[in-house]
Design a protein that fits this description.
Chain A has helices at about 35-40, 85-90, 95, 120-130, and strands at about 10-15, 20-25, 25-30, 40-45, 55, 60-65, 70-75, 80-85, 105-110. With about 130 residues, chain A is of the alpha+beta class. Chain B is α+β, with helices and mostly antiparallel strands. The longest helix of chain B has 10 residues, at about 35-45. The termini of chain B are far apart. Classes of the chains: A alpha+beta (about 130), B alpha+beta (about 350). The interface of A and B includes residues 2, 44 and 64 of A.
């Protein structure tokens, strides 16, 4: 079942509808409610491998619904330290809980200063309103 | 190129239900309401209703209507009597498929053809060019709405008597007159209701009140692919022939029709490639246009809600077309394993 539309205020956002939860030198990444709603029920998550380097503004994986496939864009750069295997097995977790159980990867940040370029929740909501 | 999209008589109903509307073949159509997977499963388990009013309807009438259609369509109309329907192909001189359609024999002198929305104009032009004296073809699409009510409980929910597939009859559903066609595009029992355009919304409301789940084009596509019904424009086109597409069963090669001789030759020498159903062994969703190793191509692909894995249709060399043959599909640069299966891909366990 799909979640209700929310955008938590403790996250940082990327205009391509991705979020980052920064915790010290690490961050969890995922896609926003808006992104999962636009795609519809997810049926496949093609994750990166642990140890892969992800680069800000570049694709690090793919999420796929019945109708469409979409790149997942990294809001921050770093090295993948964990892939959410639960989402690989049950991609619909992203629809049910995009900011919780539906996280996609954890990365070790290579340039924590990049976080300054991300949007806060109010700025991101403006992006959503324009989409 | 801005082009105004056409709207069906049910447009307001779709918006009221919160449907996601998309352009399709020149029409603004609902792709989903609650979600493709839930809608798909509703049709497999119980009953769903689809607005397919975008499809085209032609009436062909006259003392030589049968003669005209026998010369243009691949299947043999002499095999069916009045009150029966037949899946058939409109073919070109090369044996290519201009469209696939269902012909309803209203009488010996009058037929209804229901054609794909995307081909409505080109089909009509083609048929008009080949019209003969004593036959008259009219495009009556705008006069009707068409609702497909599909699923194992569809007929019971509509309160209709059981009937044989590919028959049709006039009926009244909650006071609304319609033509009930025992046809569909989901592999399930059910019917397609042809109704006057102005009664379409009222019939839709009645069908929903009887418990049918509103379903969009997304579920229509996953349902038809699970049972290997080809989609014109994807799996069959003017450049593909019926023999290669495993549609020889609806080509009466003993009669004369456009392209029959070419099809006979293809059948005699054997097609070079065949349209096969396949199931992914690796986790991946095949999509139209992806390459199949060894010289093949995916023509339709999706995620099967019933099998919970990727499925598709594609052309492969005849030598690689037998069931259980291993295939590799190039999924955006990654080689993913699949294998050829028998038709249909999905069948309910009895």
């Amino acid at each position: 079942m799909a979640a209700a539309e929310t955008y938590p205020d403790d996250l940082k956002y990327h205009k391509e509808h991705d979020w980052a939860r920064i915790e010290g030198s690490e961050a969890a990444l995922g896609i926003t409610w808006f992104a999962q709603d636009a795609l519809g029920e997810l049926v496949h998550y093609e994750p990166p491998s642990e140890g892969d380097v992800v680069t800000r503004d570049s694709a690090y994986g793919e999420v796929e619904s019945v109708k469409a496939v979409s790149d997942v864009i990294a809001p921050l750069s770093g090295e993948v330290i964990e892939v959410n295997q639960n989402v690989v097995d049950e991609p619909e977790k992203v629809n049910a809980d995009p900011y919780g159980e539906g996280w996609l990867v954890r990365i070790r940040l290579s340039d924590p200063g990049e976080a300054d370029s991300l949007l806060d929740v109010e700025a991101y909501k403006l992006v959503v309103a324009d989409s | 190129m801005a082009q105004t999209l056409q709207r069906t008589p049910l447009h307001d109903r779709h918006l009221a239900l919160g449907a996601r509307m998309v352009p399709f073949a020149g029409w603004e159509m609902p792709v989903q309401y609650e979600g493709v997977i839930a809608e798909h499963k509703a049709v497999r388990a119980d009953c769903g209703v689809f607005d397919v009013s975008h499809m085209g309807e032609f009436e062909v009438e006259g003392p030589r209507a049968t003669e005209l259609l026998q010369s243009l369509l691949s299947n043999d109309l002499d095999k069916i009597g009045s009150g029966r329907a037949q899946y058939t192909l409109l073919t070109n001189e090369r044996g290519g498929i201009l469209d696939d359609l269902i012909a309803y024999r209203l009488s010996d002198f009058r037929y209804l053809l229901i054609v794909n929305a995307a081909n409505r104009e080109s089909d009509f032009r083609w048929m008009k060019e080949h019209e003969i004296r004593g036959s008259d073809i009219r495009d009556v699409s705008d006069e009707y709405a068409l609702l497909a009510v599909q699923g194992p409980r569809a007929i019971a929910r509509l309160g209709l008597p059981e009937a044989t597939p590919f028959t049709f009859a006039e009926a009244e559903i909650d006071g609304i007159d319609c033509m009930v066609n025992r046809t569909g595009y989901t592999g399930e029992d059910g019917c397609e209701l042809l109704v006057m355009a102005e009664d379409g919304a009222a019939l839709w409301d009645r069908v929903l009140a009887r418990g049918a789940v509103p379903c969009g084009l997304g579920a229509r596509d996953t349902l038809r692919l699970e049972v290997c019904f080809p989609l014109h424009g994807n799996d069959i086109t003017p450049d593909t022939d019926a023999i290669s597409a495993a549609l020889g069963w609806c080509c009466a090669l003993e009669k004369e029709f456009t392209g029959a001789e070419e099809l006979r030759q293809i059948k005699t020498r054997g097609p070079e490639r065949k349209l096969i159903p396949f199931v992914m062994d690796d986790k991946a969703v095949p999509r139209q246009g992806m390459t199949i190793s060894g010289g093949g191509e995916v023509t339709s692909g999706t995620h099967s809600p019933m099998l919970d894995r990727g499925i598709g249709l594609g052309y492969v060399p005849a030598a690689a077309s037998a069931p259980d043959t291993d295939l590799k599909v190039d999924v955006r640069g990654r080689e993913r394993r699949a294998h050829v299966v028998n038709r249909p891909i999905y069948k309910r366990e009895e």
